Amino acid sequence: MNNAKLFIISAPSGCGKGTLIAELRKRLNVYVSVSCTTREPREIDQEGVTYFFKTKEEFDRMIEEDMFLEHAKFSGGWYGTPRIPVEENLANGKDVLLEIEPQGAFQVKEKRPDAVSLFILPPSVASIERRLRRRAVDSNESEEQIQERLKTVVPDIKTAYKYDYVMVNGDLDKAIEDLVNIIKKAKNGGEGLEAFKAEKMKKTIDEVLENA
Predict the structure, then answer these.
(1) Cα–Cα distance, 29 to 105 (Å, whole number)
(2) Can you state the percent helix, strand and coil of the chain, rounding each to 5?
């Protein structure tokens, strides 16, 4: 019996979801979808590993040919999830994880209501800015690019109420444990995850927004 599951993970830019997903892959056998993007590669990027880099013309052609499960514009660039690798891995019995922004996440949920959605909260909005500024040193991002990313933080967090599950990335070790726990249990129906359900995390989401 094929019980492969599609998981959607979203978080504000700079929340550390990339680190968490890297740790998750060491512990669980999941296919992590590689998105296409029109943004310029950074020094730390690897073609086919961090993203598939496309021209706007190539990206538009992929949209026309229905090659994306979802696509959205974010921080000045277009991003999209290639549909075929996701469908093939699910058909072969392998769980698939999409690391995408809320706009894309809701597109996927419309097409695949069976997908499990998880939002990762920062402990505070201030922690996001600190992380983005540290990361900008390695990625050579400008102040304008940092500010562009910061503009989306609060709107992104406001979407957390609509996800199936919500967790906080405060302490890294605990966050890794929570993420693995959620993925394992959600795959089997979600028993034992009541504390992570969005309605149960409402107060925590409210507090992060109130202190923004």
Answers:
(1) 22
(2) 50, 20, 30
Residue 197 is classified by DSSP as B
pLDDT tens across 118-177, in order?
A: 999 999 988 888 888 877 666 667 778 778 788 889 999 999 999 999 999 999 999 999
**C-beta of residue 96 within 8 angstroms of C-beta of residue 30:** yes
Tokens of 160: 């957390």
Angle at 147 between CA 17 and CA 98, to 5 degrees: 25
Q: Is 192 helix (H, G, I), strand (E, B) or coil?
A: coil
CA Rg value for the chain: 17
Pairing type for strands 52-53 and 36-37 reads parallel
Domains of the chain: 6-210 (3.40.50.300)
* Residue 186 CB neighbour total at 10 angstroms: 20
pLDDT tens for residues 22-76?
999 999 999 999 999 999 888 778 898 989 999 999 999 999 999 999 998 877 8
Distance CA(144)–CA(115), nearest Å, equals 35
CB count in 10 Å sphere of residue 63: 12
